[in-house]
Amino acid sequence: MGPKSAANKAKSPPEPPKPDFKPVEIRFIQPDTAVIALESAEPIVQYEALYALNYFAESYDQELVESVTRLINGGEAGVSSGGMVEAAWSLVESTCQEVTASVYRLLANLFDRYGEAVRPILIRPRPLDLDDSGQDDGEDITYDVPNPFAIRAFDHYAAENCGISLQEMASRLLARLTRDQHPICNDLCQFCDVNKCFSRLRSTDPDVQLNTLKIISNIAKSGECVNSVVNVPDFSFVPMLDLMRSDYTQVQYLAVDVVSWFLALPSTEMTLHVIFRAEDGVKKFMEILEIFEWQDMHSKIFAALIKIAKLYPGPTSRGLQQVNGIEALVDYMENIDDDNLIENGLELLLRLAEDPCSTNVVCGEARTRVRDRMRTLLMEGTKEMVDMSCRVLGYVWNDGDPVDAEALDKIVSMASDPEGSWESRAAPLCTLLSAIRNSPSFAAHLVDINQIDSYKRYVNETPRVAPLEYTKIIVLVLTALVLQESTRKKVMNSDLIGTFVRCCQAFFPKDENNELAILGAEGLRASLEAGRPPHHWLLPLRIVFRLNCPTFLVHRIYAQLTKDPFNRSLEVVDVMANVIIMLLQDTAEARMLSTTLDAVTLFVGMITLKMWTENIRAIKICLIKLMSEGLQKDGKLHVAISVVSCFLVVQYRVVL
């Protein structure tokens, strides 16, 4: 049996060979077929189907557009098991990262191309609050569960073992979902670790960098989510500042915009500016300006610097000072040949020069270079350059500089140009004002070229042609000339005092805050101060009384006291009462006028009405002084003053 069995076994027929299937190329002609193929268990088939669907989603072929739209709306609410989005989303947990990345790519493509159709699915609007009758009660939408698409995409995006392709596609979908979607941003802040975004900024992939910048920006701009971004442990400007040197323009631009946006947050977020300075933010901005090949980016750098200089002039100027930024800015304007960029640099300089917190930096070690460059641009630049350089010059000129007659004459002609608009004439007038305040020699030159009379004419003419803002600057210029000892004697005359008096009387329909009247009274006060000893050669008080100015002042204060408290200007009362006090105290002649009694009555009224202005103590002193003097003299006027003053002391217990 044994040998026979062995022989029979040797002769048994062999088993048929198994078929050797080779990979075949899968082609999808219609989106419907690709959606069906998503149900395959093989990752390669899933990937090919998703690849095809992405192609269909990006296509502009009308037939394909209609097919994709129909598949998105495959169910009653667009979320049935046959819908494209649901079919693709079912593969998001695939063990193959390429498949998961393709899912996110498809959803992002659908959102970009078919936003209206896919929005109800991806954004997942929650039901409105309903009252007992089942009707909308008008309250805000109630969000019961977090958005699964955003949450899962963030998990993949932030995972340590996430490949570059998956990071890119997940971040692309997140950037799209968070745009103008506060609920989704809130979900991410509440359920995800937003801190991970700052590590993703250091990715080597430019698309991940770009999408991450968008995510950070979108979340920070969404309602109250900004605190969830700026308070994370890894918040830093460094990775964003580093991206300004990216090889990709989009990344560069967005990095500057995001940094600028954070720095423009309200002053309550001052720590951001401290972080920016500590991380050499200003220095890195200035380094970008040194790369002339990136001129297309310089305008954004200037826009950011101007914005932070406006919000934080002191810290910004100190940051520039630490890196010799003012000199670098002058070098830049000397070497660049783009007029727009030169104007940007001028705007930054002007912004720093205008603010008292930063003027000293512009007028510091680089002042001479700034002055010389501004003069060149004043004489040779475009209209915009001339206007801004003119204004900067007003701040950098000082008494140690030789009088630049040519530059001053041009500025004077600009301020008086009859063909220029009032706005264009106001800027050089502001420059003259700054130059007068900073340099007595410049003020003397302005008087020597006989421009003062023409300026007074603008204030005194009837009807007044110059607008209120221009007139106010002229009054400030005239007051500055009075305050400068080198020009005081030359300009002080009845015409100048009369100009200030007219300002106190003046009425502008749009001057709701009585600004011109206040400036006129300040000019009068400066004139009275200038007339005190040792300036014996000047008698502005006699001019004031000859023009019956005290009566006008009393009437203006009465007008303010009779106004509604909400419309009353205590500043007008203060400055004019101060002038009246000076008049009553300085000369015996003042106390012989009927205005004295009016003023005393007025002051009594101010105290009884509890108009506690800044000058109330001076008013009390003046009243008691007049009372003591009146009791020692004869005459009806002095008796009346004494009676009113005594009544005030007894009835209201006015004490020093």
Would you write up a description of this structure?
By secondary structure, this protein is mainly alpha-helical. 67% of the residues lie in helices and 0% in strands. The protein has 38 helices and no strands. The protein has helices spanning 2-10, 31-37, 43-58, 62-72, 84-89, 97-113, 115-122, 148-158, 164-177, 182-191, 196-200, 206-220, 226-230, 238-242, 249-263, 270-278, 281-289, 295-311, 313-322, 325-335, 339-354, 359-362, 367-380, 383-396, 405-415, 422-438, 440-448, 452-460, 468-483, 485-491, 494-505, 515-530, 540-546, 549-561, 570-586, 594-608, 616-631, 636-652. Helix 18 crosses helix 19 (313-322) and helix 36 runs parallel beside helix 38. The chain is elongated.
Enumerate how many helices there are, as a single number. Answer: 38
> Biggest sheet, open or closed, and with what strands and sense?
none
Q: How large, in whole angstroms, is the Cα Rg? A: 39 Å
Instruction: Tell me the strand percentage band.
Output: under 5%
What general form does the structure show?
elongated
* Contiguous runs where pLDDT drops below 50 for at least 5 residues: 75-82, 125-143, 589-593
Instruction: Estimate the helix proportion, in percent.
Output: 55-70%
**Assembly context of the chains:** single chain
| N-to-C span | 143 Å
Helix/sheet category: mainly alpha
How many runs of DSSP E, i.e. beta strands?
0
Average pLDDT number: 77
